[in-house]
Design a protein that fits this description.
about 55% helix; UPF0193
Length: about 160
């Protein structure tokens, strides 16, 4: 049916039927008048240099030497990747399961805060108490200058007496 519908010459049809009867593969190109391939004009360049060798249309097995000569059997050298600290990874996953978030980021922030705290020396507790008492006395002096001293004097003295360690 397809042979009749196709626009093939009688020679081409006969040639294809012969290939099918013999069990050969069908040709990629079938020349219209003869089984000979037309001779192309002399090429200006060498076809062997520009075109790779053409594979035949017939399926065939390659010899083992041809297969081994290619790069198919060459193995790449194993290149190990950088190793992970498995204990650190375990702790990180435990923290994720326990708290629901990655604590590595928090540790980084905590180390930054700790270094800042180490740089700033903590004032002595005695100095803090002296400063608090001094601030209250200054506040009381300001209130007395404004005429509000009686109102705040008892409150300030009570606060000063309560400042203890």
């Amino acid at each position: 049916a397809m042979m009749e519908e196709s626009k093939l010459t009688c020679f081409q049809r006969r040639y294809l039927m012969d290939c099918v009867k013999r069990g050969d593969t069908l040709p990629l190109q079938c020349h219209p008048t003869s089984s000979k391939e037309p001779v192309p004009a002399a090429p200006a360049f060498s076809p062997a240099v520009c075109q790779p060798s053409r594979l035949s249309a017939k399926p065939h097995l390659r010899p083992a030497k041809v297969c081994q000569a290619g790069d198919a059997y060459a193995r790449e050298k194993f290149k190990p990747q950088a190793r992970r600290d498995l204990e650190k990874e375990k702790r990180r996953l435990q923290n994720i399961l326990a708290t629901g978030k990655d604590v590595v980021e928090c540790n980084m922030k905590q180390t930054l805060v700790q270094t800042k705290e180490e740089e700033i020396p903590e004032p002595d507790r005695f100095e803090e108490l002296v400063n608090e008492v001094q601030e209250r006395k200054e506040f009381l002096a300001e209130m007395e200058a404004l005429g509000q001293g009686k109102k705040y004097r008892r409150i300030i003295f009570t606060e000063i007496s309560q400042v203890r360690e």
